[in-house]
Design brief:
mainly alpha, Arc Repressor Mutant, subunit A, 3 domains, two-stranded antiparallel sheet, 8 helices, extended, Sporulation sigma factor SigG, transcription regulation
Length: 164
């Protein structure tokens, strides 16, 4: 990971060298440092396993900061409703934002191992009724349908479910 960041920083340095204009009367370091930092930030943002919008990520980090402030002020763990109230946001939005920044786990992550065969996450979510990954397709389909507007949903329902 550190090697990757070093290489990305070097790419930022090369871009700074290529784009630096001597006629601007600015020190090279003044120009290069933001370029290098920007390249590293872009790498960290774009190479997460799940793409999370900036506004959602910002809300999640504000919620974490609000949580810490409320713990200090109240002397106990605040509820999500209290955090949302502190931020002036909806409770559902805060929950969604906090869920979005959680690190995903692999389906093949062992959750139990006593010296014998380990039990994996996929073993716990598998369903005998759906075979060959149909459940994964179902999740993908539901997510895709959720992103459609009402008209697009109606067209797909008429075409594939109502037979029109």
């Amino acid at each position: 990971f550190v090697d990757d960041l070093f290489q990305v920083g070097c790419i930022g340095l090369i871009k700074a060298i290529d784009n630096f204009d001597l006629g601007q009367n600015v020190k090279f370091s003044t120009y290069a440092v933001p370029m290098i930092i920007g390249e590293i930030r872009r790498y960290l943002r774009d190479n997460n396993p799940i793409r999370v919008s900036r506004s959602l990520r910002d809300l999640a980090y504000k919620a974490l900061q609000a949580r810490d402030a409320l713990v200090a002020r109240l002397g106990r763990e605040p509820s999500v409703k209290e955090i949302a109230g502190d931020l002036g946001a909806e409770t559902d939005e805060v929950v969604y934002a906090l869920d979005a920044i959680q690190e995903p786990i692999s389906l093949f992550e062992p959750i139990y191992h006593d010296g014998g065969d380990p039990i994996y996450v996929v073993d716990q979510v598998a369903d005998d009724k759906t075979q060959d990954g149909q459940w994964l397709e179902g999740i993908a389909l539901k997510e895709a349908m959720r992103r459609l507007n009402d008209r697009e949903k109606m067209i797909l329902n008429l075409r594939f479910f109502d037979g029109k």
